[in-house]
Amino acid sequence: QGDAVGLMASGGESRWVPPKRGMGAIDTLLRASYDLQPRAVATDYLAAATELSLRQRKRALVMLVTNVRDEDIEDLLVAVQLLQKRHLVCVASLREHALDLAMEDEVHDLPGAIRAGAIARYLEQRAAAHEALRSHRVMVLDVTSDELPAALVERYLAVKRGGLL
């Protein structure tokens, strides 16, 4: 498409790869990110959004890949609103595949019922957080890690078709 693609990682190890055009851009991204691993640390969404706003001055489609949790939604909304001053924002909210599987399990006893109830409550809170983002004009993808690549490409192509950038 002739567009530039870049990467910023935060919430653990920080990395910045400025946007580049051409076939070599993907190789650059892969080399810069192949060893990134998720960490059990809270992401400072506002700090990440501030840093990205300073680094990426030109309007862009920002795809924020995270695991949206109910307790993070206020901080995430502030960060997204900062980014929306210049950019089009899409939040790709990674859903744990294990939760989908757990909701398919039959409940046979009290511990199973408690577990199913807790998972259902978590998923309801997650859906409410997604709705809060959508109410602020944020595109939201609710996907597993296996679904992520195709969903990101599909959303990018939809943005291009819609002339949103």
Write the layout of secondary structure elements.
Blueprint: E1 5-9, E2 15-20, H1 24-33, H2 45-55, E3 61-66, H3 73-84, E4 88-94, H4 97-104, H5 110-135, E5 139-143, H6 148-162
Parallel strand pairs: 3-4, 4-5
Antiparallel strand pairs: 1-2
Question: In a nutshell, what does this entry contain?
Answer:
With 165 residues, the protein is of the alpha/beta class. 50% of the residues lie in helices and 18% in strands. It folds into 2 domains: 1-41, no CATH class; 43-162, Rossmann fold (3-Layer(aba) Sandwich).
General description of the model:
- By secondary structure, the protein is α/β, with parallel strands linked by helices.
- It folds into two domains: 1-41, no CATH class; 43-162, 3-Layer(aba) Sandwich (Rossmann fold).
- It is built from six helices and five strands; from the N terminus they run E-E-H-H-E-H-E-H-H-E-H.
- The strands form two sheets. Strands 3-4-5 form a three-stranded parallel β-sheet, sandwiched between helices. Strands 1-2 form a two-stranded antiparallel ribbon.
- Helix 3 links the parallel strand 3 (61-66) and strand 4 (88-94).
- The model has no long low-confidence stretch (mean pLDDT 91).
